Prior knowledge:
Blueprint: E1 4-11, E2 15-17, H1 32-43, E3 45-51, H2 52-59, H3 73-84, E4 86-90, E5 102-105, H4 110-118, E6 123-127, H5 130-138, E7 144-150, E8 158-159, E9 170-177, E10 183-189
Parallel strand pairs: 1-6, 1-7, 3-4, 3-6, 4-5
Antiparallel strand pairs: 2-8, 7-10, 9-10
Amino acid sequence: MRKIISTMWVTLDGFVAGPDDEMDWVGECFDEAMGKYEGEFFYAADTLLLGRVTYQSFAGSWPYVPDNPNVSEEEKEYARRLNAMQKIVFSRTLASADWNNTRLLREIDPAEIERLKSESGRDIIISGSPGLVQSLTNLGLIDEYQVLVYPLILGAGKPFLQNIKDRVRLKLVDSKTLPSGVMILYYQPK
Length: 190
């Protein structure tokens, strides 16, 4: 059975974005080790789940990266992989989802998610999309949380994992510290 794995960038004070949804701080710690982590995370999966905001951000840039002469060959390859993946975006307000291999769903159907997990293939991932992570957490559908704790205090912003209905007990299954000071924590539900 495939797993649903979430990766989320979080500041030390628990925010996933600044007060105006800014995430400029994420790039401050991007180095070779972070690139390796991102590549391994995406290459281990064949399906990407997205909320509307993350979808619009990704779809507004990644489809154009392979044709951009100003980006590295590594970034182009990463973009090609991302563009080829099956993508499912959950949104009640998005008019359409035209990015290659994307399916638009208006609501989360737990039975449909379980069916997706039971299909053959690689893991299913969520990159960002904190609202989607919240909803899937409340439904008990996430198999692993990979939390990237950044050495930064924002003071205000969009909190990580808000409005969780029930306590979720987790076990730490791995951790890594990157040269940039980012700590990656790997948790699975108990």
